Structure to design on (748 residues):
């Protein structure tokens, strides 16, 4: 049946159903298409040429037309009719009544906007954007701008105005008259005996299936009727609760995203688990090549004998395991809290396993939030998944096994860098083999046949050592867990065990508790190191430096060590201190002097009594020198930092000498004795360097310029052609030479 919009809306009330997608024809990204469409309509109306908009399908229900295909075109025509009626000042009661027979049911805000647009006044001004006029109306809610249908309607009205706004002639009659030039064919589905199934499929053209719905359609074929119900009920509730916990306003869209990300990530784990090593090595970037739907299609072709795929992921066993995993997760968080919540120390051990699940809901690839799941997060959940399919849901009977498996698996994963696809593959293979011993993991590690591939050897050895202590004396467990669950140590505490040895080589629980408590405080108290309050002046680092040169080599630089939480940062900083026999001894010596209840006072006492005469005193006695190094790094010539009392040292603002840097001894002299000194106001400057030129102090005295540079254990003072040399310790003599009118100062 050939018809037009005005005739159709006279016969039927048109309602855009919830199942349809938002109005998208006015989207800014589709501006080119919208321009072409409106240009064609304008040309047709202006010149009286017929324009056919093809077929529009709909379902008639008690006088109401529910569009199945054609929503976008109908909405644009409705907006055009309203605009021309407004522009030509013809929005009378009859026109309003007719236009009011069109409504949106997709969102309440869209529905309200359509009603207000018809029934409330809009002041039309030639030359002013119609969208701005609407937004300036008292009845317009600012929140409507976040409704994509409303936003795109406003954009489309502006596009319509650009074409029709300058037209002097009245064009509305060419749309609402007996012979409208804009026509289309309307097909009521009932007249063609089409089924509801086709109705739903045709709707998918306007509202595409989400990734979750698409996967569900494929995956459900292998589920029982009971499991199909769970997909939309118990299992969906898992992700609904998480969204409710994370957001004040629940978004079904985000719930779907979390649900799909979980399934996509879990299938990826199973895909990697099924691979042979040669397939991984041939595929350089398994992360980027993974496409869950393509993989499903490829495996289906293999099952149908159309291809010869070497890896099968959607096996009957794996599908059963996915179902089992989802079942176990339905009450997982509650079980963790109920079983371990009353025990403070064990709660800290198990608590990360809640976050492990949340981390696993990050998308396989980056989305608008920029969040992407990494290899380590995948491995952590894989450890949880292997527990589920072996011992099923967490309960009172298996909580001891869960606790032990959690400790070992997390400690291994958290302390081994997993940066490359091959690392990830080997980590998964190792966890798979190790999971065969979930029920007796402690006994297995102590057996002579135990084998742990890939993971850091030093960590594996440490785990065996800790297990031996716990099995011999259960009192060790709480002591060990209490320290290793600290966020910085995160499972690696072998150096603390070494500190706790007695003279016979055994391990003393009292000593372990002593060193553990002090280290926890040092690495938790932000006021004692640079990441926190600078007013505390890096007490920990300066006091430790007083015990010996603990600085760690970092490329061409040395670092005082940062406290960043990432594994790479830990390995490149404090763990090089913990695992170095000499540097670790400096730390132990420091801990042995923390004898009072006030660590800050102890650190200040150690700093105060330091009296050795070498480069360290410039950092220990003057915190400003370390504060200059924003990245906590210095540069020293060759290896002189370990062999010279006063090596040449540069203070780095960033990482390289090409960045602004200072020289230690001149910078110290300037800040402690020259900057702001009486008689030198505005005459003494520190000249930083950003290249190979030496930083130096510059003092202006009349027409004379004095330059002070450092040369290892001496200062070089240049006055015109004269050059004198003074030992670093001869500060007063230097001041006497360059500051004639300054009083003597007591120098430290």
């Amino acid at each position: 049946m050939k018809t037009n919009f005005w005739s159709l809306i006279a016969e039927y009330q048109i309602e855009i159903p919830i199942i349809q997608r938002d109005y998208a024809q006015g989207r800014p990204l589709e501006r080119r298409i919208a321009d072409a469409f409106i240009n064609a309509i304008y040309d047709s109306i202006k010149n009286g040429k017929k324009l056919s908009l093809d077929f529009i399908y709909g379902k008639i229900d008690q006088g109401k037309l529910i569009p199945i295909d054609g929503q976008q075109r109908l909405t644009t025509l409705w907006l055009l009719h309203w605009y021309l009626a407004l522009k030509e000042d013809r929005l009378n009661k009859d026109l309003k009544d007719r236009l009011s027979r069109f409504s949106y049911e997709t969102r309440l805000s869209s529905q309200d906007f359509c009603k207000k647009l018809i029934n409330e006044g809009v002041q039309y001004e030639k030359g002013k954007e119609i969208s701005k006029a609407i937004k300036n109306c008292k009845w317009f809610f600012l929140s409507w701008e976040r409704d994509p249908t409303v936003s795109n309607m406003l954009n489309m009205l502006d596009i319509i105005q650009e074409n029709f706004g300058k037209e002097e002639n009245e064009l509305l009659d060419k749309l609402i008259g007996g012979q409208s030039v804009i026509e289309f064919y309307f097909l009521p589905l009932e007249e063609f005996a089409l089924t509801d199934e086709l109705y739903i499929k045709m709707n998918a053209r306007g509202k595409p299936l989400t990734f979750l719905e698409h996967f569900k359609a494929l995956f459900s074929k292998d589920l029982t009727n009971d499991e199909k119900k769970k997909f939309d009920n118990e299992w969906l509730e898992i992700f609904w609760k998480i969204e409710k916990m994370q957001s004040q306003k629940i978004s079904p869209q985000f719930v779907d995203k979390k649900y799909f990300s979980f399934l996509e990530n879990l299938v990826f784990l199973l895909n990697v688990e099924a691979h042979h090593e040669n397939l991984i090595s041939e595929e350089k970037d398994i992360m980027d090549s993974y496409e869950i739907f393509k993989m499903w299609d490829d495996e289906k072709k293999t099952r149908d004998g159309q291809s010869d795929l070497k890896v099968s992921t959607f096996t009957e066993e794996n599908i059963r395991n996915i179902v089992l995993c989802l079942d176990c997760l339905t009450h997982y968080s509650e079980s963790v809290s109920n079983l371990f919540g009353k025990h403070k120390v064990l709660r800290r051990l198990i608590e990360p396993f809640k976050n492990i699940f949340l981390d696993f809901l990050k998308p396989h690839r980056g989305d608008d939030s920029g969040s992407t799941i990494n290899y380590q997060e995948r491995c952590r959940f894989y450890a949880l998944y292997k527990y589920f399919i072996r011992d099923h849901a967490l309960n009172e009977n298996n909580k001891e096994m869960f606790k032990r498996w959690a400790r070992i698996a997390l400690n291994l994963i958290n302390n081994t860098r997993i940066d490359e696809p091959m690392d990830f593959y080997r980590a998964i293979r190792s966890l798979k083999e190790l999971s065969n011993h979930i029920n007796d993991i402690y006994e297995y590690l102590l057996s002579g046949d135990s084998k742990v591939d890939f993971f850091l050897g030093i960590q594996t050895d440490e785990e065996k050592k800790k297990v031996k202590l716990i099995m011999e004396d259960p009192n060790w467990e709480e002591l060990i867990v209490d320290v290793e669950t600290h966020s910085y140590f995160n499972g690696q505490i072998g150096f603390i065990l070494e500190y706790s040895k007695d003279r016979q080589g055994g391990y003393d629980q009292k000593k372990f508790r002593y060193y553990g408590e002090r280290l926890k405080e040092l690495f938790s108290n932000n006021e004692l190191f640079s990441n926190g309050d600078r007013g505390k002046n890096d007490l920990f680092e300066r006091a430790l430096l007083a015990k010996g040169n603990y600085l760690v080599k970092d490329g061409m630089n040395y670092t005082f060590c940062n406290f960043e939480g990432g594994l790479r940062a830990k390995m490149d900083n404090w763990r090089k201190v913990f695992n170095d026999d000499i540097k670790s001894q400096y730390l132990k010596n420091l801990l042995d002097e923390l004898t009072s209840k006030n660590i800050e006072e102890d650190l200040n006492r150690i700093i105060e009594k330091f009296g050795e005469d070498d480069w360290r005193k410039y950092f220990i006695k003057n915190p400003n020198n370390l504060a200059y190094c924003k990245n906590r790094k210095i540069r020293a010539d060759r290896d002189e930092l370990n062999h010279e009392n006063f090596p040449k040292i540069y203070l780095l603002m960033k990482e390289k000498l090409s960045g602004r840097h200072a020289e230690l001894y001149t910078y110290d002299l300037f800040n402690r004795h020259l900057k702001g000194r009486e008689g030198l106001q505005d005459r003494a400057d520190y000249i930083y360097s950003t290249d190979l030129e030496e930083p130096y102090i510059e003092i202006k005295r009349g027409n004379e310029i004095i330059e002070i540079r450092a040369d290892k254990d001496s200062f070089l003072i240049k006055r015109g052609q004269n050059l004198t040399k003074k030992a670093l310790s001869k500060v007063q003599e230097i001041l006497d030479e360059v500051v004639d009118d300054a009083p003597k100062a007591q120098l430290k």
About this structure: The chain is about 50% helix and 10% strand. The longest strand covers residues 51-61. Residues 192-208, 530-535, 742-748 have pLDDT under 50 and may be disordered. The first helix runs from residue 5 to 11.
